[in-house]
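User: quick one, fold this
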Amino acid sequence: MTYVSVIEGGAHPMNGQTTPQFVQAVLEWQWTWPIARVALVVFYLVSALSKITNFRGAVAEMTEAGMPGPAAMALLSLLVELVGSTLILIGRGVWLGAGMLGVFTAIGAVTAHAFWRVSGRARVEALTVFLMHVGLIAAFVLCALVAEREGRAAQRAASSATPKHQVQVVGG
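Assistant:
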């Protein structure tokens, strides 16, 4: 059971709208959730692989950004990108993986795209990228939320499928 199937049928409880059938079919397709998770983390995986294949370049990038201990920060970034992405992809500890990548993205937004420090065209470009980072952070929150709700729905389904043993006390 997916989170989407929990809200099936009739009007949506939050907005009263009926979900079109083709949208419902896409949302309930077994591969939608895995594909969405891959799409969410693919950038971070590519970035981690880039750091692995060109660690000197990663250190130079951290140096240019003014990060303390650039080699340690490059290694930390690589680990956060790999571990966070992996947790999301395997569907275990999604909240932790999403949290890791969300915080990582927030730090990147504030350090590398500080639109308040520049002006003119550079400000517009930095603001645009900053706001994209904010959207990614929201996507990580939604990813964790959907995973949590799917987990709860699976637990409810498992507990309702398990026969309940009733003990009846007679006498006494």
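User: anything notable?
Assistant: Residues 1-8 have pLDDT under 50 and may be disordered.
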